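Quick one:
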Amino acid sequence: MLDVQLPSPLSELHDDRLACAGVRVLLKRDDLVHPEIPGNKWRKLKYNLPAALEAGTLLTFGGAYSNHLRAVAAAGRHYGFNTIGVVRGEEHLPLNPSLSAAVANGMRLTYLDRATYRLKTSSPVLSRLHQEFGDFYLVPEGGSNPAAVRGCAELAAELTTPVDALFCAVGTGGTLAGLAAGPHPTIGVPVLKAPLEDDVVALQHATFGERVGNWRLLDGYHFGGYAKRTPILTSFIDDFKARHGLLLDWIYEAKMMYALFDQVHRRAFPPGTTIVALIN
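Output:
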């Protein structure tokens, strides 16, 4: 079995901007769960692993910078099943660090042009993939399926301190769908332009039979879309590292933390509020 560190640690963020607003922020350091399969990647894979082991091969989807593909490849190496990564867009060599790490862990990569990728879950595309690769266990892009939602829902039980709100970044919606099933009001920060509420609701319906929990999406902090950023976000990342010694992932967590600090600056939370921000 993989040696994962659960529960992940909770550490307080000491920052004068938060102190001035009377807001307390705790970082849920899910990035420390495992060096190769951190945070929500492990939580999403946990209940998918038995089916992957039974099938012998797991196939999943992701963009060229997908941390999900990288984590799935590592899980395949550790647990002994084959992995296939279907990448959006054309192949570019040399491979970037994310895809290089996936290949180093034994993942076989294949590519779909963007038009075909949008139809990746359609019967014709899946049939073509089965013809090429044979039988496999399919995990959706970002790992978000009911098994993943159940894994993410377990995080709430690890929070033993009183919490007024949870913050998380939102890509495919699985993490938010699970977190929001707990007792804490949850705020999701989308990192891409596309509307995501229906995706989160659909995942909750598939997992729990209905929309559950007290949650909402906080739009307007995608900085141009998925895997895009602006000088403002880069400056925030550099400043955060200088203040706190933590380099935020610019695709997900930096956008979420920027949104949190901006909302604190706007006095969206009354003094005395305690927020837990999920770092994956």
